[in-house]
Amino acid sequence: MIIEVKGVGLLSQKRKNEMTFLYCLLLLSIWISPFLFNRSDKKSLIFAYIFNACTNVVLDKFATKMNLITYPTRLLHSFFKIHILFDLLLYPIVTVIYNQMSSKEKDNLLSVAYKVFFFSIPLTVFEIWADRKTGLIKWSAWWKWYHTLFSVSLKSLITRGFVELFRRWQRSKANPRIT
Q: Angle of helix 91-101 relative to helix 8-36, nearest 10 degrees?
């Protein structure tokens, strides 16, 4: 006798669709990556990528350990509780693009801060959608959309600040002043 559990097939199909979506994002990230660093300031962009990826892992580990955020559907779920794809590919790629757009000489602090919202707002909207409609991310009752907006914006600005310090260090190293 076969007992059919109502909704189980639908759940597994939803998970398959979510995994397919994640694999498509993975392929898109891998495809975009070589084009990101095709500029004269490669070192600072690589620094931005690595700094962002490393801090993402630390902060996401903290957020998942505190049960602020969980990722029911994620790549490498057997090994990590964090969202490896977002932490090590997607958000660092966005950070590199943001640093490219905000690294012009004419950019002052206000324009750098203003430009961060072109990236943090779409990321926040995507997370709101993912939390409500998919199993990709689940926020705790305490975590709200504005926490994501604030934390992504602040983290991007902090990363941008460290990248600017790295650029200044690189320039001073290349052109030491003769006294």
A: 40
